[in-house]
Amino acid sequence: MTPSPRSVDPRAIRGDEPVRDLLEHAFPAFAGRNLREAHRLMRRSILEDCTVFATLSGAMTPAGLHTSTILPLIEAGAISVLTTTGANLYHDTHRLLGHTIREVSPRGDDLAYREEGTIRIYDLGFPEEVLLDTDRFFLELLRRPAFQRDMTTPEWHYELGREVARIEDSLDKPVRTLLGTCFRNDVPIFVGAPQDGSIYLNVVRLARTDPDFKFRLDVARDAFQMSALQHLSRADDGAAAIWIFGGGVPKNYTLQGEPLLDQIFGVPARGFDYDVQICVDVEDNGALSSCSAGEGHTWGKTSAECVESKSVYLRTDVTVAAPFLASALLSESELRREPKRWMKRLDEAEQALDNVIRAAT
């Protein structure tokens, strides 16, 4: 039975309401209603103990959104698997190395910025030396014995996270990073286009200049691990949700795990059970970034039930919406749960999917 539509009759704002109350009662229509619906679906996906696959694109770590929003959600057990860009993980370490990112004018003189050695990301700025210092940092890490083997991106970032966490622990002034926090909570970090990021540019340098450098990315196994985690997350009546912060490669790389299961391996997959998307792109330009849950369903990426009642597309900047959503979710103690620690179960997930594939052939 279809529920009766709720009346549009918001209460007057007093000024002392918790964020959760505002989301429930002060956002009755349009984009505001979609913000309210995003909170409702994120909350339900946690209460139903879904494995949450989160994607993060755009310059979110320079903007500090990871420290304000993503890391608390990881530590609260809300996010279990993360897909992001190599750039976000590279910029993740600037503050760890003692550097500061400051506000600048987006209408400033870019020729003058270049002359003075200032790098600009819209309204954020930092000296070019920050990049050079970060490159030296990753060059030194990547030469270490732990990296001289074939790896997938979750394995690679887990080892990087191990090193970064050690540095975090040694600092007098606490600095938290995506790499370190995901390592401590055993959250796998996937990067679908690692060569499109500066950490991997340092891999390129070492591969061309250091004969002892043995690091290689196994991209076929990488994609298999994503599908394997999605497959195992739904075993024994489990469920999976996707929270998309931005669009781009992280969104597609995570969603394509379902077609890999169903269309390539012939393993039945119903698609994600929840789909929450926050992106600035319009939906009618054919781009993947703005692909709706319904469009994704035609590819087998989302379930029919998801399309009918468990999806929302909020068209706005992630930096506007995500802090409100995180605040509301983190305000409820019953939404905090033990981390699922999928990084510890990667081998199990691969073996389980291999078994299903062998049984079907």
Please characterize this protein's 3D structure.
- With 361 residues, the chain is α/β, with parallel strands linked by helices.
- The chain has a six-stranded parallel beta sheet with strand order 7-2-1-9-10-11, with helices on both faces. Strands 3-5-4 form a three-stranded antiparallel beta sheet. Strands 6-8 form a two-stranded parallel sheet.
- The model has no long low-confidence stretch (mean pLDDT 96).
- Helix 1 (19-25) crosses helix 15, helix 6 (128-142) packs across helix 9 and helix 7 (153-170) packs across helix 8.
- The chain has a single domain (30-102, 152-194, 217-360), classed as Deoxyhypusine synthase (Deoxyhypusine Synthase).
- The protein has helices at 19-25, 30-47, 65-75, 86-91, 110-116, 128-142, 153-170, 178-184, 198-209, 219-233, 248-255, 257-264, 293-297, 304-309, 318-330, 346-360; strands spanning 51-56, 81-84, 102-103, 118-121, 124-127, 150-151, 189-191, 216-217, 240-245, 274-279, 311-315.
Poorly predicted regions are: none
As laid out across the biggest beta sheet, the strand order is 7-2-1-9-10-11
Number of domains: 1
Compressed to H and E, one letter per element, the order equals: HHEHEHEHEEHEHHEHEHEHHEHHEHH
Number-wise, the strands total 11
Mean pLDDT: 96
Q: How does the helix and strand content classify structurally? A: alpha/beta
List the SSEs and their pairings.
Blueprint: H1 19-25, H2 30-47, E1 51-56, H3 65-75, E2 81-84, H4 86-91, E3 102-103, H5 110-116, E4 118-121, E5 124-127, H6 128-142, E6 150-151, H7 153-170, H8 178-184, E7 189-191, H9 198-209, E8 216-217, H10 219-233, E9 240-245, H11 248-255, H12 257-264, E10 274-279, H13 293-297, H14 304-309, E11 311-315, H15 318-330, H16 346-360
Parallel strand pairs: 1-2, 1-9, 2-7, 6-8, 9-10, 10-11
Antiparallel strand pairs: 3-5, 4-5
Helix pairs in contact: 1-15, 2-15, 3-15, 6-9, 7-8, 10-12, 10-16
